[in-house]
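Hello,

Our lab assistant flagged a job as stuck in the queue for most of the afternoon. It eventually completed. Since we weren't sure the result was trustworthy after the delay, we are filing this so someone can double-check. Below is the sequence as submitted and the structure that was eventually returned. Let us know if re-running is recommended.
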Amino acid sequence: MKINTNEYKKMANYASPPSPSLKNCFFAFLIGGLICTLGQFLVNIYLSMGLDLEHARAACSISLVVLTALLTAFRLFSKLAKLAGAGTLIPITGFANAMVSPAMEFKAEGFVMGVGAKMFAIAGPVLVFGISASVIYGIILWIIERVS
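-- returned structure --
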């Protein structure tokens, strides 16, 4: 059966339900904002416990990563992400979920070849490009400082 381009577009449009963009944006903003509010709440708690601002922020990041890893392990984060979309993927919680999800999926293959190897399947490219970009930016900044 040969299908031309117009017929294919009609079939694709029919099979793809319309996306409620306004609703998706609202929930992404709401849930992402709540995650950021939780982060600020944690920073305030750590500050009240006597940590300085730098260490409070680090403890907050660690807490959010651990909380997300636990929610992912109990299969609750995917339900939240389904509702919030990018609202959960943009903050540090998205990174934690990207690390834990493949590890859980491939745990049957063992700790080394399953969890260890597959844990970076999604987050690996982000780490590689993020670290590479920071090195390049650092070199450019160093050159600019030397020239000025």
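-- support follow-up --
The delay was a queue issue, not a problem with the job. The result is valid. The helical segments are 5-15, 21-48, 53-73, 77-84, 86-89, 92-105, 111-118, 120-147. Residues 21-100 form one domain.
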